[in-house]
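User: Here's a chain of 631 residues. Predict its fold as tokens.
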Amino acid sequence: MRILLIHAGRFSYHVTDRTAAVSSAAALDASLEKASLGDALVAFMASEKTDEKGIESVAQQAAAAIVEQAKQVRTKAVMLYPYAHLSSDLSSPRVATKVLDRVREIVAAGDHGLKVHHAPFGFYKGFEIECKGHPLSELARTIAPAEGGAQAGAGGDAPDAAASAALKAEKALRSEWRILSPDGTERRAAECDLSGNHRFQCMYEYEMSGTRVSTEPPAHIELMKRLELVDYEPASDPGNFRWYPSGELVKRLLEDHVSALLSRYGAMRVETPIMYDYQHPNLMSYMNRFPARQYVVLSDKKEYFLRFAACFGQYLMQHDMQLSYRALPSRLFEISHYSFRREQTGELSGLRRLRTFTMPDLHTLARDRDSAREEYLRQMDLAMECMRDFGLEYEVAVRFVREFLDEDPQFAREIARRAGKPVLLEIWDERFFYFVSKLEFNFIDAQGKSSCLSTVQIDVENTERFDIKYVDEDGQRKHPILMHTSVSGSIERVVAAILEEQAMKIRDGKTPSLPLWLSPTQVRVIPVAERHHAFCEALLAKLPYRADFDDRDMSMGKKIRESGRAWVPYTLVVGDRETQGTELSVRVHGGEQKSLTVEQLVAIIGEATAGKPYAPINVPVRLSARPIFVG
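Assistant: Prediction complete.
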């Protein structure tokens, strides 16, 4: 930042054009159109590119310099005046506004008795100044972010001042924690003995701790690499991953399953952009209300943020929709490739918490709160179906604003009854967020840490912010209730949860496996000798599933062991007996050895995978033709 401090005997300015010179400038406050001061310190300020690396640091230093100079010249009036002409390397208007606002907040909050005035940012102004002309009347300063200072939300790992204020407000919320049983019994959480329910206790303790920092690598990281599913990409930003062929197949099958589930539910699939104008009035209001850690990209000197959910595009689409009450509830969903959130480095934790992710995002418009509650329960059922299909254990937490809970106390009891397990209930006296209720299905990993998968939320704020309306029977346009839902959670976190479940099985001496419909290879055929290769290839043609053929030059025992390490569900060993008979020798992963005909094996797999999506194998069928992705 560049600042020029002038001790003036007289200073005045007036706005010469009420049309903003900067598109992102706030609406002009009539009280700021002109001002005139007598004895005052005038601080001309220009925010520079380097300020983006540390908004708070720059603001603190600038405020300190202004206060100190005011003391030196013995004035009690300060005029903060945006003045872009002090620099040729200006920051973005968004950052400039944040820096100037923060300087004003800091100076005004001090106990030095200064009266702080400020001129509007982003408007053409004329001014007159009379400099006092003594040795201390003029001072120029260049301010740079302190080394290691707080980073701007646009690029660094720590939140900027605006984000910090929102996060502080969130942390200041007071809530009551209760445990609701399926039979409707409700008790204070602090009074309950949770020692007999390890996973639920982990979730409760994790929620109470308030920290998301990971001190050791999660167990799924070793498994995702060993199975050649996914890995870190060293050439990208931390928290971004490369998906190998088998991992891409698993990820795609999960996406297809969630998509089919939502389509059957009556949701309409859409696609929306991954970047949005930072200065769009509705989006800017949303971002200021709930700041997140965004990636920011620059295009033709205009700033865009990369979405951290599919909300924005669907909000704008719903705003433009012509919607009758007869069409409610109305549901849009997107499998958002990609969503971005610049998590802090210490919070990055494999696939559990990362910076680029795929989120199945469903937004429902419901007519009123009663209709929203009905949708909430139906979407909870979909989430439970997802968890069953993924083979995941989960714990349930529900958050309520007390006013919404008191409208229908039976609603929370119905949630617990449907869950069939204890529910952790958090009750807020005041609403800080956009939602009045939020359901979460949480998985507990091998380290005992809790992470949210499925979520259902009732939003009472954003249809007004984005002016989303429907036409009621009386012809009046009204705001519906908006619901945010992900019946699965991010696909990457689902993969993490599945692998964490298997890591806990390994720890307990059990056999790990993937759900059969997700296994990259469902059947592996292993010949005893080279003379059996032709039979093996003919056998593959009879198997309408993901089957491969281990034709490598190594012992049969090693091939069988490697099939087990790859968690292949069915391994067929083909020797002379199999080529001459009708039955196959089938090794079931983690189980017994069976003799089955091809038809019997096909029927078993078909029954176990019925209703689930299918995709062909995503690697060469012959193992000898495959590259090794993880050495």
